[in-house]
Amino acid sequence: MPSTSQESSAQTPPVPSTSTAPRTGTVTRRSIVAGAAWTAPLVVAAASAPFASASPACVPAGTLFNVDASGRLLSGSLLNTNLNSIAGVAGANVSVAPGTPGNAATTSSPLNVDLLAATLLSLGLRLPVPGAAVGLVNQFAAAAAAGTFTGASGAVADNSGAISTTAGVAGAPQLATVDLSTILSGVTGSPALTALVGAISNLSLSVGAVGNRLNVDARCTENSVPTVRQHEYVLSYLRAVVNTPIVGTLFSALNGNLSIDTAALLTALRAIPVLGPALNGLVGGLLSLSATVTVSNGPLTNQRIPNGVNDPVSIDFGAGNIVVDLAPLVGLPYDGAGNSGLNGRPANTRLFAAPYLPTVSTALFVDALAQALVTALLNTITVDIGISLLGLRVLRIQGTLAAVVNGTATITLAGGLLGLNLGPVLGEIGTAVRNSVVGAVVGLLGTTNVLLDNLFLVLRDVVAITVNAQEVSQTPTNTSTDASALRLSIVPGAAAAGLLDLRLARGSGTTARRTP
After folding, report:
1. Gap between the Cα atoms of 441 and 443, Å rounded
2. Start-end of H helices in 243-382
3. H or E element, residue 394
């Protein structure tokens, strides 16, 4: 069952009732619907401005308000174009004043993806094709003169604004692709961005399904802030997608001969019990190691490696992309049910700012990539390794890397090693050989760690990624509340703010007290 949370001051007295308007600012468990096939437990975030110790003040019974409410999937600016000026982006908006029939109103207006696709694409934003957008682009608003409102958008019900998506990555549809290469093309003054652009063909941000619902009841306030505010949001995933020639170069290099560090492998083998003492006991000259390692890249075609749900960095060879899943990257992994750690964050959580920073160094991310690639290629990597003394081979290991690792490779002994029982240490021999192959693949990954370093700097110093973005402004009689599941913007000072200030899945509203 999806869960909800509602925040109110512990000192808030009962909210005055009214016979003229429904309580649209209250959400019950019954009102949360599961309207999609990919349902899973809903993660909810509720937040508000800090409260002082003073008791909340409630308006007299019968007090009415002017209330505006809005649910907008897209708002802000892209490439210095105000999205509000584009026909069809306006969202669902409703205004109520005392005297409005019923003192309440609701409206819904799904975003017309077909109408807007070409215009938004020219601004660096790609939305799903119309058929795939059903259920992802709804917009809903409700307001009551009693002082309550709801603003919802994204994967929400079009008759109530209730969130109807999951926080899970598995099977969640993609809502949008933000073309950061296009949007950031005019940014100067960032060495990391300049270096990144020189190493890639394109950089984009893939945004999974999002939903957002804001409910406010302004009848009781503390320090002019409504004490009953409920904000629910869900964000399936965020992935930086880097199209780079590095992927194609790597794919080609993983087809043919692979050069390993033979000196390092010999040192590793000499450190293994049983084998090491036997090798070190040979007299008469220096030992030498030769190796022929070949690989076929067939298993890499058209798959993402690694493909675990919490693998932060992976390679999609079919598309030529390095894919960075931001949630596990910054220590917010998916749980066992696939729910993203991006959900349930405090208000205005900024990724790539403490404490939400990459969990390990880029060198370790690259090593993990190499390990995953070798695992995928175990059965197509063949090795022929020989150790010789004075030109005479005393040990030979032959087979696939999988056979070497599991201890079933062909091992031939001669000379002073003849009759040596290596059975107890076959696993250690396999690990040493595998590690040497991993080292070779790390070398083939080349400057991938530099690319990742520059990408992370751009996402820290140029682009601000904010989850559960919230703003509240108030006077003694007026309150404006705004909440978005996701906000993408330019870090202040990095470039003109209008270049990128995109809010996805936004709910907002204003209440102005009119009569006592």
Report:
1. 5
2. 245-253, 262-270, 275-280, 326-329, 362-376
3. strand 392-400
Q: Output phi, psi for 24, to 5 deg.
A: -70, -10
Would you place residue 126 in the very low, low, confident or very high pLDDT band (cuts 50, 70, 90)? Answer: very high
Burial per residue of 252-277, b for 16 or more beta-carbon CB atoms within 10 angstroms, e otherwise: ebbeeebebbeeebbebbbebeebbe
How far from each other are the two terminal CA atoms of the chain, in whole angstroms? 41
Q: What is the DSSP letter of 499?
A: G
Residue found under tokens 């804001």: 214
What's the rounded Cα separation, in Å, for the pair 272 and 275?
6
* Tokens 């990408």, residue located: 455
SS (H, E, C) 14-53: CCCCCCCCCCCCCCCHHHCCCCCCCCCCCCCCCCCCCCCC
Q: Give Cα separations from 140 to 22, 81, 130, 216 (angstroms).
A: 16, 24, 19, 14
Range of lowest pLDDT (173-177, 178-182, 474-478): 474-478
Q: At 187, which amino acid appears?
A: V
Distance, in Å, from the CA atom of 120 to the CA atom of 346, rounded to the nearest integer, reads 30
Q: Which residue has the tokens 């690259």?
A: 366
The Cα 371–Cα 429 span in angstroms is 17
**Cα-based angle 98, 102, 104 (whole degrees, multiple of 5):** 70
3-state secondary structure at position 389: strand
- Mean pLDDT on 42-52: 38
Using H for helix, E for strand and C for coil, what is the string for 65-134? EEEEEEEEEEEEEECCEEHHHCCCCCCEEEEECCCCHHHEEEEECCCCHHHHHHHHHHCCEECCCHHHHC
pLDDT per position as a tens digit, 195-233: 999 999 999 999 999 999 999 999 888 877 888 889 999
* pLDDT of 496 above 50: yes
Is 293 within 8 Å of 382 (Cβ atoms)?
A: yes
- 465, 454, 461, 456: which is closest to 494 by C-alpha? 461
pLDDT digits (tens, 9 = 90+) for 353-366: 999 999 999 999 99
